[in-house]
Amino acid sequence: MLDSELIQIATNEAIYWWKRDEYYYHKVFSNFEIINEDSEQLEFFGNYLFKSFTKQYSVSRTLKNIDKNLFNLIDYLNTKEYFTNVIAGNKSIIDEVANNFPNYLSNGKPISFLRKLAFLINPLQFSLFDTLARNSLSEILKEEKSIHRAVKKSYTEFINFIDDKLDKNNVTLNKQINKLDNFNICCEIEFLKDNPLIFKRRVYDKYLWLYSQNDKNRRGQSEVRAQLEIWKYYER
Question: Rounded to two decimals, what is the model's pTM?
């Protein structure tokens, strides 16, 4: 059973970040195969969007000299058909590419980078996965006595657990969709309403991100009023 207050905070977090950044990244990144066919588009995409993504999502530290290797990195992902597989929903591609990543492009396995990029491309089938999420899922599964060990660093194992949790908590997550009615209709909110499965996955992602944090470190609020007031300044 999901914690009632924590799921409200997670819902607000999911809406805020989708509306602020994630929708834009998704709409562009999900069209990478088209962008890749046009050299001018690809150059703009790499320098203005891809670099910004690696810094904003704190994955640039796992990549070696992103300014110099930017297009080598994109070329390598192309040779592994990473983008094609992510769009198709092949979740095993994360571990496959991470386990064979060349040393000249990364400091160790750039698993966080690959997972976050996959989420922005295909948020219907990929969840964000970091240490907080993995620790939270391990705690939840141990409390439920589903497993007696920590969840492995394998993305394939993690996402299988997540998909199971989304199914088992579907009733509670469905209730969170009504929160979207509080917001003025805009393309970001309309997208979530039209794609409830994406919204529910994103809410549960945020729930895991919050779950193992103590109360002092949780920045969110269970009430949506403050967020609504803040967005008014943007919408004027």
Answer: 0.92
